[in-house]
Amino acid sequence: MSIFQSLIKKEMLHLLRDFRTVTVVLVMPVVLLLLFGFAISTEVNNVKVVAVVEHHTDETKQIIDRFRHNSYFTFEGVVTHNDVESLLRKGLADAAIVFRTEGGKLKHQIVVDASNTTMAQTSTAYLENVICSATGIPVVTNTLYNPQLKSAYNFVPGIMGMIFILICAMMTSVSIVSEKETGTMNLLLVSPVHPRTIILGKLVPYFLLSCIILTLVLVLGYTVLGLPFSFSVINVIWVTILYVILALALGLLISTIASTQVSALLVSGVMFMIPVVLLSGMIFPVENMPLVLQWLSCIIPARWYISAMRVLMIQQLPVGYVLTEVLVLSGMTLVVLALAIKKFNTKK
Amino acid sequence: MDKETVISVKDLTKKFGNFTAVDHITLQVRRGEIFGFLGANGAGKTTAMRMLCGLSLPTSGTGTVAGYDILRQAEEIKRHIGYMSQKFSLYENLTVWENLNLFATIYGMSAKRIKEKTDAVFRALGMENMRNVLVKEIPLGWKQKLAFTAATLHSPDVVFLDEPTGGVDPSTRRKFWEMIYRASSEGMTVFVTTHYLDEAEYCSRISIMVDGRITALDSPAGLKRQYHAGTMDEVFRIVAKDAKREN
């Protein structure tokens, strides 16, 4: 067996014998995908609506009828003006529509419980849609790429962006730093093994693990979550591999800075987890952020990866549409890798 | 340099910024010698040892280890030395045999030779039944023996032992020194740092480092004569009394 093979075998054995970690690493993506896909949904169902009507007309009757038959709403009845506030307060209604006739024209006002902003925004949009289509100025909205506005697979790119950074950067940095802590890294450095071989021997096992996770995520995404399957899955795979390599390089860089496993965990947690969740566009759209945060988000690899994945996975566009993202990710990989190797090699 | 000199350094110096960790040390170690490298914490022992192992480049000075230049042939040096760290470092989640096999492979031993050597070692140490036990499950004393075996399985010219007996009870320490003697009688040079001054008596020659410099270098008997001291402990106290660096 060559030195390189035996180093990889060592790392694999170490990983496999740490049964709990492997379980967490393999189960976490599945749980996250299913949670975000099904439990956490930005779709709004069963919005409880009441109406306040000054004068019943054909028009108001028609609108109320539409609410009665719409599956997104539960129509709770016509109430008086004074009841609205208490109903909203008690949570018996989520929204109220007030109809008034001014100069022979029907006007409406929507009062909505905004204690949950996401729900308030979405249900207001629904309500307006229903009212507009009934009053004769229909707004035709055409949703491309995700026609049913399903949130189940919308989260897949975001989850992937988070999982690979977490697993690759965190696990590699922790495993390298733990070798520093136990002193085995010193044994390797004092041995004739080239530092390059030591680094690769550390990275390759985690790369393989990431490939297994990628397969898992893709299978789940295309079956359970119902991602549209097409040829672009090839592009998804190779862009993800690029991202995994970047994440591994980041892990290596952290391991050259951190001296204990705890600090490696903290650094990768603080440096990656939080920005990835908040700034990468995984949950909050980058375009809506203040300009400063938009600039800041540019240095976060996940932002580019997630945006590329949205194009490749959900829009299914050819790779030409994500050239910027791919170039940025490649550039980042080269810089981080160069930095990490330089720092790792330094003879103190 | 004659053939029997295994380590030879002259005016070896290492500076970190304004701080001189190792200050012009000069020493020679002969083949088969057990060379004790003593000094208080912070005296510069570890830095000096790192330079000898090819892990760190000296700021100035020259030297050879196992016949190779420490400035230009660090890779060759690494091939001809063994190193045991003070924490008896081994891979805890690998078995005894897997650890030995890994390090022997790293040092370029063939599968056949590894098998012969490990079989012999397991027999000699009475460890046959421990072959497939995870290292984290064996007692500290065995871990120490195993770490020494891992460092010497490829029959290096010199083996560097960095405080190899820390935290181990006296009878295990004595047994460990028997292993060191056996290795040295087979022609292996042993370069050992230690905090235990009674262990210094077991060495063929000793150097004592104070504030980055070697202030005393001789056989234990010679040093005791020189400083009119009864034990190595007294010698050390006399030599180190002017130390300025704090621990």
CATH topology of chain B: Rossmann fold
Runs of chain B in which pLDDT lies below 50 for 5 or more consecutive residues are none
- Residue-averaged pLDDT of chain A, rounded? 85
Shape-level CATH architecture of chain B: 3-Layer(aba) Sandwich
Q: Which band does the percent of strand residues of chain B land in? A: 25-35%
At the first level of CATH, what is the class of chain B?
Answer: Alpha Beta
Radius of gyration of chain B: 18 Å
- What's the Cα radius of gyration of chain A? 27 Å
Q: What is the number of helices of chain B?
A: 9
Give the terminus-to-terminus CA distance of chain B: 36 Å
Largest interface: A-B, 23 and 32 residues
What average pLDDT do the residues of chain B reach? 90
What's the helical proportion of residues of chain B? 25-40%
Pattern of helices and strands of chain B: EEEHEEHEHHHEHEHEEHH
How much beta of chain A, percentage-wise?
5-15%
Order of helices and strands of chain A: HHEHEHEEHHHHHHHHH
Order of neighbouring strands in the sheet with most strands of chain B? 6-7-8-3-9-10
Textual characterization of the structure:
The complex is a heterodimer of chains A (348) and B (247). Chain A is of the alpha/beta class. Helices cover 65% and strands 8% of the residues of chain A. A four-stranded mixed sheet of chain A has the order 2-1-3-4, with helices on one face. The longest helix of chain A is centred in the middle third of the chain and has 29 residues, at 195-223. Chain A starts with a helix and ends with a helix. Chain B is α/β, with parallel strands linked by helices and 247 residues long. Chain B has a single domain, classed as P-loop containing nucleotide triphosphate hydrolases (Rossmann fold, 3-Layer(aba) Sandwich). Chain B has a six-stranded mixed sheet, with helices on both faces. A four-stranded antiparallel sheet of chain B has the order 2-1-4-5, covered by helices on one side. The model of chain B has no long low-confidence stretch (mean pLDDT 90). Chain A binds chain B through residues 1-3, 6-7, 10, 13-14, 17-18, 182-184, 186-193, 347-348, and chain B through 50, 53-57, 75, 78-79, 81, 83, 85-87, 89-94, 98, 101-103, 105-108, 111, 134, 150, 160.
